[in-house]
Amino acid sequence: MRLLIVEDEDRLARQLAAAFEACGYAVDLAFDGETADFRLETERYDAAILDLGLPKIDGLVVLQRCRSAANPVPILVLTARGSWHQKVEGIDAGADDYVVKPFQVEEVMARVRALIRRAAGQLQNELRHGALTLDPRTAKVTLDSAPVRLTSHEYRVLSYLMHHRERIVSQTELIEHIYAQSFERGSNTIEVFIGRLRRKLGPASIETVRGLGYRIGVP
Ligand code: CA
Questions:
Q1: Which structural domain, as residue segments, surrounds residue 188?
Q2: What's the CA-to-centroid distance between 52 and ligand 1, angstroms?
Q3: What is the CATH number of the domain that holds 60?
Q4: Range from 11-25, 103-117, 168-182 carrying the lowest mean pLDDT
Q5: pLDDT at residue 188 above 80?
């Protein structure tokens, strides 16, 4: 899962990024509204965290532009303490949820997980397919209740497929959702990750749909 964090307080932005990265997310950072606007227009995210008080372009304007461009990315807004009108404005402008500053990082993470889960049409926190489970809270994967060790990229591929199981996911879509912007991307690496996942999870765990992509779970 790929996340955009928009926050002009450097320390806070990096603290959030580190927490999400430790749980298997690919994270892009933007420190002003202009960069956020550009990233939202050009990249695909599974969710965005958006501070409202931003340099260059106000967070509320970024949000409005994003929605008027019909971008459905789930957005969690960070609002100033006690500013109820900011919350109302944010939600009216198309935010899916909000957190008031100062906040606990765990709360932000739980809310982002819920947004991603809902957007993917999943009801449970823990994702299951047959004997395979994936828990986005801990980034842990088990097969027949035994833990499976995955690299961060293997985990991201599996997490994306598990969130969208029973649907064919193309290689391009996977690439868009598992790498941070700064990362050198290569299309053949997806095949490598899928191959390694099959070795760890069983050859039938991930289906290749010729010319279209990959799928977990037969419809
Ligand atoms: Ca701010």
A1: 127-216
A2: 6
A3: 3.40.50.2300
A4: 168-182
A5: no
Handedness of CA 114, 120, 123, 127 (dihedral sign): negative
10 CA → ligand 1 middle, Å: 10
Name the domain boundary from 101, 119, 137: 119
Our count of domains for the chain comes to 2
Q: 82 and 189, same structural domain?
A: no
Q: Report CA(13)–ligand 1 centroid distance (Å).
A: 10
Cα 35 to ligand 1 centroid, rounded to whole Å: 14
12 CA to middle of ligand 1, Å? 10
Q: Which two tokens stand for residue 165?
A: 């199981």
When pLDDT is cut at 50, 70 and 90, the band that residue 167 belongs to is very high
Residue 31's nearest CA partner among 16, 46, 47 is 16
Q: What pTM, to 2 d.p., does this model score?
A: 0.93
Q: Which two tokens stand for residue 18?
A: 């580190």
Q: Are residues 133 and 211 in the same domain?
A: yes
User: Which of residues 119, 152, 169 is at a domain's end?
Assistant: 119
E strands in the chain: 2-6, 26-30, 47-51, 75-79, 97-100, 127-129, 132-135, 140-143, 146-148, 207-209, 213-215
Residue type, 129: H
184 C-alpha to ligand 1 centroid (Å): 30
